């Protein structure tokens, strides 16, 4: 349940002085994508029902290889048997790989998880290794245990090629194994907000190394009243992180809230959302 953690100890104010700069921009546009004219880009977006908003939105990719993912991502994609990127992936991968904040909206079942997992793996691969006592580099917040578990399954499947470790932190389950994973060190943490706050307050992990932050089903999280917890968690994460929201719907109230946590984001939509 999302409420635990809120009324207990409060977290110390994070100190962001003297932060070491980090890399978050990895996108190298493939020559075939570079060669697409504005008309071709517009036609492809129309064909796949993609709309975009924001400054300097990159062109979509049409094939997996056009994303210029490292081999460990391509191996995982090859193994999956997928034929082509879904629309949110075609537009969302270049957006996310550029290191900017992203709002990605696409209907349920459209492959949003991989839209942020693969760029997340690239992000992890470019950071210094975790040291003793370090928390995660990628933090994924999700509204429910079920969703968190599904996300971790995808993170495990696609992360195994780069030996990227992940764990799932959610309420209603024993804390022991979760604490063990956190203390051992994991690059990716997928968490529901309440249990994560418990873990932070107890000092089992920290968010000082988080530079890639995902809010999945952001609309549901805000609908479910997680805003105070989200604020508390985000206050622990360095402000120059990359933040990505993924959602099936995007009501105006959610937009207003989300914008407070984003810097100069761009937005990609599919038709049905
Ligand atoms: P969403 O979060 O948008 O509801 P998911 O990320 O859960 O959707 O993906 C739904 C299903 O589609 C998953 O089983 C996932 O493995 C699969 N999937 C992801 N990308 C592709 C793709 N490019 N082609 C075919 N299936 C895909
Ligand atoms: Mg999803």
UniProtKB/TrEMBL annotation:
| Residues annotated as domain Helicase ATP-binding | 93-268
Q motif: where is this motif?
A: 62-90
GO MF, one annotated term: hydrolase activity
Question: Which Pfam families is this protein grouped with?
Answer: DEAD
**PANTHER family named in the record:** ATP-DEPENDENT RNA HELICASE DBP3 (PTHR47958)
**CDD domains documented for this protein:** DEADc_DDX5_DDX17
Instruction: List the keywords (alphabetical).
Output: ATP-binding, Helicase, Hydrolase, Nucleotide-binding, RNA-binding
Q: Which organism is it from?
A: Aegilops tauschii subsp. strangulata (Goatgrass)
The identity of this protein, by name, is: RNA helicase
Gene3D superfamilies, from UniProt? P-loop containing nucleotide triphosphate hydrolases
Per its UniProt record, what InterPro entries does this chain match?
DEAD/DEAH_box_helicase_dom (IPR011545), Helicase_ATP-bd (IPR014001), P-loop_NTPase (IPR027417), RNA-helicase_DEAD-box_CS (IPR000629), RNA_helicase_DEAD_Q_motif (IPR014014)
State the EC number(s): 3.6.4.13
The segment(s) forming the DEAD-box RNA helicase Q domain are 62-90
């Amino acid at each position: 349940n999302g409420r635990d953690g809120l009324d207990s100890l409060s977290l110390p104010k994070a100190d962001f002085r003297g932060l070491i700069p980090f890399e978050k921009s990895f996108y190298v546009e493939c020559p075939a994508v570079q060669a697409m004219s504005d008309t071709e880009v517009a036609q492809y977006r129309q064909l796949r029902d993609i709309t975009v908003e924001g400054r300097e939105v990159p062109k979509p990719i049409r094939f997996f290889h056009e994303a210029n993912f490292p081999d460990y991502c391509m191996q995982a994609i090859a193994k999956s048997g997928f034929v082509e990127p879904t629309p949110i992936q075609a537009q969302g991968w270049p957006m996310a790989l550029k290191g900017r904040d992203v709002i990605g909206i696409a209907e349920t079942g459209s492959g949003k998880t991989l839209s942020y997992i693969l760029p997340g793996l690239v992000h992890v691969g470019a950071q210094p290794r975790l040291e003793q006592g370090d928390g995660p580099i990628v933090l994924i917040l999700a509204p429910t245990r079920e969703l968190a578990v599904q996300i971790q399954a995808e993170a495990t499947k696609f992360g195994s090629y780069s030996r990227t470790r992940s764990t799932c932190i959610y309420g209603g389950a024993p804390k022991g194994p979760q604490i063990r994973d956190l203390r051992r060190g994991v690059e990716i943490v997928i968490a529901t907000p309440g249990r994560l706050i418990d873990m932070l307050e107890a000092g089992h992990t920290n968010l000082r190394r988080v530079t890639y932050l995902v809010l999945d089903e952001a609309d549901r999280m805000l609908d479910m009243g997680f805003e105070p917890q989200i604020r508390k968690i985000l206050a622990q994460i360095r402000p120059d992180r990359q933040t990505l929201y993924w959602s099936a719907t995007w009501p105006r109230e959610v937009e207003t809230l989300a914008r407070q946590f984003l810097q100069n984001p761009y937005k990609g939509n599919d038709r049905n959302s």
